[in-house]
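Hi F.,

I've been meaning to write this up properly since the lab meeting, where we talked about keeping a consistent format for the predictions we share between groups. The idea is simple: the sequence comes first, exactly as it goes in, then the structure tokens exactly as they come out, then a line or two of notes. No screenshots and no reformatting. I'm using this chain as the first example so we have something concrete to point to.
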Amino acid sequence: MITYPEINPIALSLGPLQIHWYGITYLVAFAGFWFFARLKTKQAHVNWNYEEIDDLLFYGALGVVLGGRIGYTLFYNLDYFLQHPFILFQVQKGGMSFHGGLLGVLLAMWLFARKTHKDFFTVTDFIAVMVPFGLAAGRIGNFINAELWGRPTDLPWAMIFPTDPLGLPRHPSMLYEFFLEGVILFTLLWFYSRKKRPQRAVSGLFLIVYSLFRTSIEFVRQPDAQMGDKGFIAMDWLTMGMILSFPMFLLGSYLFWSSYQNKDQH
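Output, unedited:
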């Protein structure tokens, strides 16, 4: 068993103002998006400029924060939210949904595409490459908050998290997600997109691989307790994360397949 490195979730206190590591990881995610997006413009087939990237980051940040928080309350904590609506603004305590954030970003990208007269999938193909970096940063925030830990296990890398009332050795599932949804997915998409690909192919590949990684990790991640008895939706194994990932896989498969059928390159 590995000892959990207890880290104060508050990085800095300035009187009544508290700066949380969770918020800092979001700043790291946005900075990483800005850096890698600018780096990507140096590739010959990428037709984006720095001003467009700055605007894109603004739209994307709003989509991530608003969509992620609203999605969490609707998908995972609706009953509590209806009784305590102000939890919507308590972002520093964690509680962000990737699937909600994805919907928020898609809406923001649609608005951005309309403003700039770009094709919607030209925008999503471009941002999909950078999204895993943000996911990786967010999972580090989950680890520092000691949240979203996994199910009990006797594997040698199990950890006891201070937020676990049972004090059991558990899968550090947020680190699994950091590695798969962050490092591996980012590397895959970065190298895949170095060459000109059919339009929608990069977006489709992102949806396919993310949904597969997320679904596989759901088998070792502790389901959210607020979802009901044991946290499962049905059959003592089906979780909300799996349900939300399934349409992502179907849509991604269609986008990837149809992109190569039409071979509409960008």
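Notes:
Residues 10-262 form one domain.
Strands lie at 10-14, 17-20.

If this format works for you, I'll send the rest the same way.

G.
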